[in-house]
TrEMBL record:
It comes from Protea cynaroides. The lineage of its organism: Eukaryota, Viridiplantae, Streptophyta, Embryophyta, Tracheophyta. Pfam families: GFO_IDH_MocA, GFO_IDH_MocA_C3. InterPro entries: Gfo/Idh/MocA-like_OxRdtase_N (IPR000683), GFO_IDH_MocA-like_dom (IPR055170), NAD(P)-bd_dom_sf (IPR036291). One of its GO terms (molecular function) is nucleotide binding. Residues 147-259 form the GFO/IDH/MocA-like oxidoreductase domain. This is Gfo/Idh/MocA-like oxidoreductase N-terminal domain-containing protein. Residues 6-125 form the Gfo/Idh/MocA-like oxidoreductase N-terminal domain. It comes from the Eukaryota. Belongs to the Gfo/Idh/MocA family.
């Protein structure tokens, strides 16, 4: 007898919800059960445009979707300024929460959301999709192996994309009342997560924002960067931008290993992802070439990375719903650490680019 799939409700009709709704349909343990918007017509058009199953319920308000007792999970792709209200309400309605990033405007808001989820026994996870790609697991096998990679010494990350004139005028990511963190919260979230991932989620001691960030007239960050420092001497830097051509790079340097990945946010091809790794690389004696040159690792998958995310989230929810398990604490912890660094970078910018201690 087939198991009952986890029933997803989508709270809002954001562009990213198109990608995640497809993932829900492709996931073997999930089903697209409902969509809710501020108007019934908008929700209906979104459902039709994205091939929702005929059985999917359409709601003309967020509240109506949350009141449906058959919704197990809500995916929340709303503007960041709305996350606190709707995540807390969803948790109080006993809905598990898959939340788009950035998860909050600051860690105080996130703590309220996490607390609501803990009190109500529901799973929380943010929607950083690349974390669930099989390539990420393979890269961890290399950089987390001290015999192969040595000790991590520095990490560098870049995520940039050219938003274009219309984006820079009208997108929610440049509106202070909707997504006030701008490029730091959007692209910078990925860079910071990549750095923490490479550091096995050890928080840095201090964060120092780089000078001359670019802000729009409303004071929202369009491009910025930062350096991070750890007590053991590790360092990291990142740059995020809405103003430069697309780049999605991670470089991790260990004492005996190097890793490069050039499409970490979204693989260049949906079913194939690669990275370069090398160990104990050096020059020939006459500097005519390199020994132990980087090797390319290619990971082929049957499903897009967002499907792996939805499937993992549904597995956790299933174990809580049917198996009596407690929510997995790993994911809210990682979200919180990422938010702490985002907050520290923002504070450093506001404090004249002085170092800011990252406080747990």
């Amino acid at each position: 007898m087939a198991e009952t799939p986890i029933r997803f409700g989508i709270l809002g009709c954001a562009h990213i919800a198109q990608t995640v709704s497809r993932a829900i349909c492709l996931s073997p343990n999930s089903t697209l059960y409902a969509v809710g918007s501020r108007s019934f017509e908008k929700a209906k058009k979104f459902s039709e445009a994205n091939g929702f199953p005929p059985s999917a319920k359409i709601y003309g308000s967020y509240e109506a979707l949350l009141d449906d007792p058959d919704v197990d999970v809500v995916y929340v792709p709303l503007p960041t300024s709305l996350h606190l209200r709707w995540v807390v309400l969803a948790a109080e309605k006993k809905k598990h929460v898959l939340l788009e990033k950035p998860v909050a405007l600051n860690v105080a808001e996130l703590d309220e959301m996490i607390k609501a989820c803990e009190v109500n026994g529901v799973q929380f996870m943010d929607g950083t999709m690349w974390m669930h790609h099989p390539r990420t697991t393979k890269m961890e096998e290399i950089i987390y192996d001290p015999e192969r990679f040595g000790n991590i010494k520095t990490v560098h990350s870049i995520f940039s994309y050219g938003g274009g004139d219309d984006f820079l005028r009208n997108n929610i990511r440049v509106k202070p009342d909707l997504d006030g963190l701008g490029a730091l919260g959007d692209a910078g979230w990925y860079c910071i997560r990549a750095i923490l991932w490479a550091a096995e989620y050890e928080l840095p001691k201090t964060v120092t924002a780089l000078r001359e960030p670019v802000l729009n007239e409303a004071g929202v960050i369009l491009a910025c960067g930062s350096s991070l420092q750890w007590e053991d001497g590790k360092t990291a830097t990142f740059h995020c931008s809405f103003l430069a051509n697309l780049a999605m790079d991670i470089t991790v340097l260990g004492t005996t290993g190097t890793l490069h990945v050039h499409d970490f946010v979204i693989p260049h091809e949906e079913n194939t992802a690669s990275f370069l790794a090398a160990a104990k690389t050096g020059y020939w004696e006459l500097v005519t070439g390199m020994s132990a040159i980087p090797s390319q690792h290619v990971i082929t998958t049957d499903l897009p990375q967002e499907v792996y995310m939805v499937t993992e989230f549904s597995r956790l929810v299933k174990s809580i719903k049917d198996g009596g398990s407690k929510p997995e604490g790993k994911w809210p912890s990682i979200s919180r650490k990422t938010q702490l660094v985002v907050d520290a970078v923002k504070a450093s910018i506001e404090n004249g680019f002085e170092p800011v201690q990252v406080r747990v």
